[in-house]
Amino acid sequence: MASSNKASGGSVGDEVITCPTLRSKLQARESPFLRGNYHGGGFTSDNDRVLLQSVYFADRHSAGNRSQDRLEALSVQMKKASFKNAAIDDATSDLLLSVPKYAIRAGARKRIYFDPKETRMAIVTAGAICPGQNDIIRAIVTKAFDYGVPEGHILGIRNGFRGFTNRTRRPMVLTHSMVKDCHLEGGTLLGTSNDPADIREIIKRLDLWKIDQLFVIGGTGGNAAAYAIQRECERCNVPTAVVGVPKSIDNDMLLFDKCFGFDTAVEGAQAALMAAKVEAASGYRGIGIVKLMGRRSGFIAVQASLASGVVDAVLIPEVPFRLEGEKGLLAYVEKIMARDGHAVICVAEAAAQDLMHGEGPRRLDAAGNPVLSDVGPWLKAKFKAHFQDADIKYIDPSCLIRSIPASSQDRIYCRMLGHGAVHAAFAGYTGVTVGLINTHYCYIPIPMVIQAPRTVDPHGELWARLRSAIGQPSFVDDEDEEFCPE
Amino acid sequence: MASSNKASGGSVGDEVITCPTLRSKLQARESPFLRGNYHGGGFTSDNDRVLLQSVYFADRHSAGNRSQDRLEALSVQMKKASFKNAAIDDATSDLLLSVPKYAIRAGARKRIYFDPKETRMAIVTAGAICPGQNDIIRAIVTKAFDYGVPEGHILGIRNGFRGFTNRTRRPMVLTHSMVKDCHLEGGTLLGTSNDPADIREIIKRLDLWKIDQLFVIGGTGGNAAAYAIQRECERCNVPTAVVGVPKSIDNDMLLFDKCFGFDTAVEGAQAALMAAKVEAASGYRGIGIVKLMGRRSGFIAVQASLASGVVDAVLIPEVPFRLEGEKGLLAYVEKIMARDGHAVICVAEAAAQDLMHGEGPRRLDAAGNPVLSDVGPWLKAKFKAHFQDADIKYIDPSCLIRSIPASSQDRIYCRMLGHGAVHAAFAGYTGVTVGLINTHYCYIPIPMVIQAPRTVDPHGELWARLRSAIGQPSFVDDEDEEFCPE
Amino acid sequence: MASSNKASGGSVGDEVITCPTLRSKLQARESPFLRGNYHGGGFTSDNDRVLLQSVYFADRHSAGNRSQDRLEALSVQMKKASFKNAAIDDATSDLLLSVPKYAIRAGARKRIYFDPKETRMAIVTAGAICPGQNDIIRAIVTKAFDYGVPEGHILGIRNGFRGFTNRTRRPMVLTHSMVKDCHLEGGTLLGTSNDPADIREIIKRLDLWKIDQLFVIGGTGGNAAAYAIQRECERCNVPTAVVGVPKSIDNDMLLFDKCFGFDTAVEGAQAALMAAKVEAASGYRGIGIVKLMGRRSGFIAVQASLASGVVDAVLIPEVPFRLEGEKGLLAYVEKIMARDGHAVICVAEAAAQDLMHGEGPRRLDAAGNPVLSDVGPWLKAKFKAHFQDADIKYIDPSCLIRSIPASSQDRIYCRMLGHGAVHAAFAGYTGVTVGLINTHYCYIPIPMVIQAPRTVDPHGELWARLRSAIGQPSFVDDEDEEFCPE
Amino acid sequence: MASSNKASGGSVGDEVITCPTLRSKLQARESPFLRGNYHGGGFTSDNDRVLLQSVYFADRHSAGNRSQDRLEALSVQMKKASFKNAAIDDATSDLLLSVPKYAIRAGARKRIYFDPKETRMAIVTAGAICPGQNDIIRAIVTKAFDYGVPEGHILGIRNGFRGFTNRTRRPMVLTHSMVKDCHLEGGTLLGTSNDPADIREIIKRLDLWKIDQLFVIGGTGGNAAAYAIQRECERCNVPTAVVGVPKSIDNDMLLFDKCFGFDTAVEGAQAALMAAKVEAASGYRGIGIVKLMGRRSGFIAVQASLASGVVDAVLIPEVPFRLEGEKGLLAYVEKIMARDGHAVICVAEAAAQDLMHGEGPRRLDAAGNPVLSDVGPWLKAKFKAHFQDADIKYIDPSCLIRSIPASSQDRIYCRMLGHGAVHAAFAGYTGVTVGLINTHYCYIPIPMVIQAPRTVDPHGELWARLRSAIGQPSFVDDEDEEFCPE
User: Fold this and answer.
1) How far is the C-alpha of A415 from the C-alpha of A345, rounded, in Å?
2) Range of the domain at A318
3) Residue C287 to residues C391, D181, D480, Cα–Cα distance (Å)
4) GO MF annotations for this entry (chains A, B, C, D) (predicted)?
């Protein structure tokens, strides 16, 4: 009984998320791992598939039904996304509204489309720092050397896309000794920035420097730029493979099981919550408020609160709340204070934007991200006004969390993402990104993961787990009825 | 478009792993979460399903084909298992040889079969300590209180199954204040032991103490005992729900994505490898040897080595190796020493048993686990004899790793396992265990996960990733041909 | 040659810092450790002495001459102290201006002045939290039990001095099981507050609750209150021994080698500086600004910067600086940026108050501490205005640092402080505090350590070490000439 | 009142520990820090003094009397030392029996005796690894650059003294970039070894390579070699300044407040004790045995046990104990087991050698250190035999402790030691070592600190504190009477 026949019937092929390639423009050759260079575990077929959805709900009301359906979630979130990514044009976007069932499996292919000895690579890191960036750089470089790419052929672009054009920050040549221990330090050895990418200038440099493969480790903005670069390469007939590695410490990338660095960040965030607990419990009527990262979603806030076991209320952008009123947050914290003498509040940075600004459209920054007002001091002031005798401590640990080296699991994840990215490029894929789906590594076209942010579903399992674990009620009067079991 | 219709056709139901229940003997009632007690995220239907296999291989030779197929792996490993669990009798075992495609999803049910106000529970931890045990105890107790179980109704059995009968270690009553912060400490507040379970005596106590629900946090031995208790309960018509929570720091439980505490252990193991690297690199011809846990499998050794990036050779029980000869380990380490001046070796505790003892059958201990010879000192002596001028350091960090508190991700996992176990018992399931499959929580009949150990597939992706990452060759002359890509 | 004869001639006695006692009002008896109760290492004589000054300068210009002379430093700092402690009245203060050469050695005495079996104690923690508070509570309680104080006789006053009068926070009875593991958690199990002490009300409660010995773990404010309580006890003829344990995470207590919790805080602060370095080095023209604790002195900023090795400039309240001008901070950081591409600035919270407010007298809070403007955001804004293209990150890790459990060395220190405090009280001392001087534990009258803060001497060794280590120039035009070696 | 006049009268000069210099053979010149090169805090006079003894005992029986007298301790320990260092010949040794009262203060001198621009340095690390070695290397190199030593003039000798002669391990040139971040990693970047020093060959290389200043970071053996090198240099008229930096993770160097790396080691050791506690408390009749470093003394065992608060009995080489008998260790642990159900034992590696081997003279290794039998497995076996039903866990964390990077306080200490060593060499001192005495940095002739090991005084304060803290009785029948207070 070969398991491969499970994919029989061709039906799988029909429903797969296809990835763009450069193959028609390039010459195929054998992987060096086929003979000689040790590789390890055989090759992955282009036709291997990973199911996007591994759970089946028997009931429309089954817990997590809506949120756990990755495909539907994708469509739903795209439709309602208030800050749809401008880099994805409508044509592409429409295409994605009907999402196939399977993804292409990542891994080394038997046939590759670049001659490793001639291949020139560039790596760029963009956006805020995140645990694991150096691990990925290291994994890309060492895997490239495994393929046979010569030392001297791998450029590190410095400080994000700015490094393509900035004369004071010329690219650095990445060698084995430079990356050997780089994963032991936080941050990115290439430097980073949030500068927008000047696509035309970048194409010029890729051409000038003869870059065959460009790897972009970045967030939504970085991947959007990678996508734009790939489209422009296509338009200009520049045969550079562009591969993204999705970075989101907030874990707000669509489709993937999780983003690299997220586990590490949750560990750091959890420590901050414990500190807030100590402060609050030692104070007289102590209230600890911790602001955690989450520009569009509350994953860190939710998971760190779940892990810590010390949080009394969690505020995330996906779930509206009220401060005032009988069911409001302040009244709830009053009860907690009466019971325990102290309280700990965890707030994601994008929470309460509506309370601070009203419901109107938000201002976006250059990278298309919403400009956020600082919820931390605002919330502290509101608490200070309400609990006048309380000893309120406010903690913003974001910089401390971002800068730590990756945990072991993130380190392994990053290594696999880096390897997967190199395999993708050599296999001729372009405009793709790599990530874990149902515990398997997959390639996904970039637009699909960045068109809208992944968010905590207010009706989904994760939020329910948190509320159940800490006993948090709804802080609005008219809780969505679907939320209650029928 | 409800996603539930994806499970249409009834075909799902036909192929599901069924779980035994006590429902016919008990009276159903509404969950208290249906009204009043806050729960959170709706209920899970008994008919919700999780696919065991989410990857499809297009090619018989696709990387990881054999190992990634959970179902087939189960069959294969059962057939060839050299230390099949004696607690599983043949009838059951045969039944399991044909494994269905779906598992039952874990979660709160609308209908429960115990009246929370009358329910009495017992919790027991068995086997070696493991990060996260206290988290699970805490999760079970707090979720029980959420259901409405009265304080005073939850017994903690002390020091494993011994605590059912030992007069000097009477059960303790678990209260909210006892478990509130227990997750911050390592070990298990109940104490543990490897003592075999005296099934008849245990049944007597369950009956005497009127225990409705018994939770067993244990390894293969503990779950085998739980299974035996459940069978005996059935035979004696004692309506106690027996639910296991599978503990394996070695991560050698079948079917599940991972076992709780494993990530934490890998983090600790990785730190020991880094220490060995520092020792080796500082010594004159330094060789660091680290023995890591793994009584039947090499998962910790493989993952910690992958994460650390400092290991030169990994020895696990699943992959035979030779010390001597041109392709042997010693010759390979000679090359490493010539290149780097130092080397780091990571060995799982069950590796090299054949080299130490020959290929004959191994002796088993009372719990059915093989009695292992200590590979650490043996390997150190072999290296000392071969590299006479080398500075060899041997590290065994096992106790330090086992005793640390759980990481944040393990903490969350443990919480969900504990909640899932309580939901299972209230839903009338018995003889089941709970775990994560393709990122979803599921219930599985105990025999299915303990009948044989999960092992690192020498032809699978994990081992290939490691070999590829560290460049480790085969240390036997006649490497299995299938291993090489065709 | 017995060393004891070194103390011969009586001359030592003449120059010793004397400590007030209650002995004339109490009845002496033998220490229980003289027979039976195990104690350990013999007794300390009332006449044992510790030299306050162990260094002798051959030259007026010897490095650190002024600052290293504890006695002179005391006088100098008292005279020029801009925020002299109001609790110390002038009579006492004058007395202290001529400081003796020796301190009384701490330790168990053969003769004690309270019958342990009848002794009632109270412990209070006041001021901000600090690593080690629980260690000291634990040490006091366990040593009291060693003396033979009955369980039930030790009260924990809650939330600082407020706990003497607040009806909702009644004192708690401290038992062995309550303190057994309390040192593993940060903060203080008693709770704390900055509330001023109502001396009369406190005396009433001490009398009402029959407290024989009061232990105050607190900062300058807490010790000032302890001193006031002792004076009022004296006035009212209440024979309660009042013993302080000086708490200052900033390490700004006069005379002592260091304050408990300081080493732990430096470790935490150093981690924040490393995070700032990672952020700065990863950013495009990154500047990391870290604000560290130090309400009156810059010890944490200096030591953490020395330890980290990543800081480019350190700003402390003791050393004035200018932002603008050729020799100003901004110009210096420009040079660093040009050289390294990034910079890390460490600023103590009390630095730059003159730049923000001018040189006038500062406002004091209820506890007599100066009200500080927040230098962090101010400095960030100044840098933002000057380095417009820079990526500036600001970190305030104070809450995270304060709340961690103590390091091993702090743990040992705290244990000895707690034991020393109990020995002092039983020996009949009152109005004293305990600390380490030249590596020996001593008793010192409270006013002597709180009359003025200990500060980093701008001409002393510590500041010189830092400047030498990081190459920091003076940021004022007219550097004090004495600073330069002649 | 200038404190400098305290050193008046010349009396100090008469009683000072003098240090050998090369000044008569070299030409004095001004320190570059006198003009131009920034230094910081002025200069230290050759006549500045630090008192070795800062405590005065009023009573022969005062706690710690004997042990706290550094001078007398020195004499006493030398006389009774069973393993007196063979490298110190009798003439020198006799000289040291009468110890002066003052030490010379360390620090930069105004007059130096080497032209920095022409100075060539060599640095060697010898013996086992210890936290902080890289910090010291870094401090020496950076301070040398501060003096004006050119890049290229500083050699790192590899793998201890072996590196002077081994052709495969040529010296490395230490540059700024090599040492910049080296303190973030454990171990020593130079490598180390325990190989004996071939003095004549080393002198040849020093001459050949024109080394003006040799820095030896090593233990007793390394400093003995440094002393022998200095003597041979003197004999051969080679004007190389030889300066030691005393390394002893065991903290067994005479005179100094503490050795670098010790605090870090205690922290790591304490973590191992906590792990043993978790194992013991979780097991059924669990006993945790932790073996800690301490080849000649029990400082780590004592301090880590004091810090942890979880240890029931501590065994160190300085304090004999019996296993059997009514007052023996086993009987005591029986009582602990009866009371708590578990026990934790901490044993220093050199403890119980007499029980294992009888009282005869011990075998010495090449470096003059006693060859130790492994007390860990021996003790475990004894316990196993006695407590047959106990669950005994044995932990040896030494490698994990040695290899970690230094704590912040150790980092600062190492920096000062490295700076002090460079100042010593430029000031023309030779045959000296640097360390902290009564909180001040001092220079001491090498023989004085290595002639005998510093040990825990069984009648001293430290041991008394430990016994008092954990309530440990004597495990011999006839406890020394002096130990009991009269």
Assistant:
1) 35
2) 263-403+459-470
3) 6, 19, 63
4) 6-phosphofructokinase activity; metal ion binding
Chain-chain contact of A56 with B463 (C-beta, under 8 angstroms):
no
Based on the fold, state whether residues C397 and C434 are members of the same structural domain: no
Minimum CA–CA partner of D342 in chain B:
B191
Specify whether B341 is located in the same domain as B352: yes
Instruction: Judge whether C271 is closer than 8 Å to chain A, CB to CB.
Output: yes
For residues D380 and D412, state if they share a domain: no
CA D208/CA B257 separation, integer angstroms:
63
User: Which partners does chain A have (≥3 C-beta pairs < 8 Å)?
Assistant: B, C, D
Residues B48 and B174 in one domain: yes
Contacts of A69 in chain B (CB under 8 A): 3
Distance from CA of A482 to the nearest CA of B (A): 9
Using a CB cutoff of 8 Å and minimum separation of 24, what contacts does C166-169 make?
C169/A284
Write out pLDDT tens, residues B173-220.
999 999 999 999 999 999 999 888 999 999 999 999 999 999 999 999
CATH of the domain at B288: 3.40.50.460
Task: Look at C461 and D41 and tell me if their CB atoms are within 8 Å.
Answer: yes
How many Å apart are CA D213 and CA D204, to the nearest integer? 14
Between residues D99 and C180, which one has the greater pLDDT?
C180
Residue C151 has pLDDT above 90, yes or no: yes
Report CB contact under 8 Å: D278, B191: no
> Is residue B478 domain-resident?
no
CA gap C187, C412 in Å, rounded = 17
The answer on C270 and C194 residing in a single domain is no
Q: From chain D, pick out residues whose CB is under 8 angstroms from the CB of B129.
A: 278-279, 282-283
Most D CBs within 10 Å: which of B399, B401, B402, B404, as the mutation test of the D interface? B399
Tell me which H or E stretch contains D424: helix D408-426
Our count of domains for chain A comes to 2
Is residue C4 domain-resident? no
Q: Which residues from D are below 8 Å from A185, CB to CB?
A: 184
Position D7 in a domain: no
Instruction: Centre a 10 Å sphere on the Cβ of residue B125 and count the other Cβ atoms it contains.
Output: 31
* Choice among A46, A48, A250, A252 that is catalytic: A250
Q: Provide the CATH number for the domain around residue B172.
A: 3.40.50.450
Exposure string (b/e) for D103-128, b if CB count within 10 Å is 16 or more? Answer: bbbbbbbbebbbbbeebbbbbbbbbb
Q: Is A257 a catalytic residue?
A: no
Give the gap in angstroms from C-alpha D101 to the nearest C-alpha of chain C: 11
pTM for this predicted structure: 0.93
Question: CB C38 to CB D468 under 8 A?
Answer: yes
Residue A339 and residue A203 in one domain: no
Contact flag C72-D408 (C-beta cutoff 8 Å): no
- Inter-residue contact B337 to B390 (CB < 8 Å): yes
Closest Cα in chain D, distance from residue A470 (Å): 28
Instruction: Tell me, yes or no, whether D204 and D71 share the same domain.
Output: yes
Order of all β-strands in the sheet with B432-437: A55-56, B49-51, B102-105, B440-445, B432-437, B241-246, B213-218, B121-125, B154-157, B172-173
**Which residues of chain D are within 8 Å of residue A184 when distances are taken between CB atoms?**
184-185
Classify residue A56: in a domain, yes or no.
yes
State the CB neighbour count (10 A cutoff) for residue B325: 12
Is the pLDDT confidence value at B91 over 50?
no
Looking at the annotation, which residues of B are catalytic? 250
Give B207 to chain A, closest Cα distance, Å.
31
Give buried/exposed letters for B40-76 (b at 16+ CB in 10 A, else e).
Answer: bbbbbbbbbbbbbbbbbbbbebbbbbbbbbbbbbbbe
Q: Hey, are the CB atoms on B62 and A45 less than 8 Å from each other? A: yes
Question: A46 in contact with B at a CB cutoff of 8 Å?
Answer: yes
CB of B391 less than 8 A from some CB of D: yes
The token pair that represents C204 in the structure block:
């009433």
Residues of chain D with pLDDT under 70: 1-14, 36-41, 66-99, 359-362, 366-369, 477-486
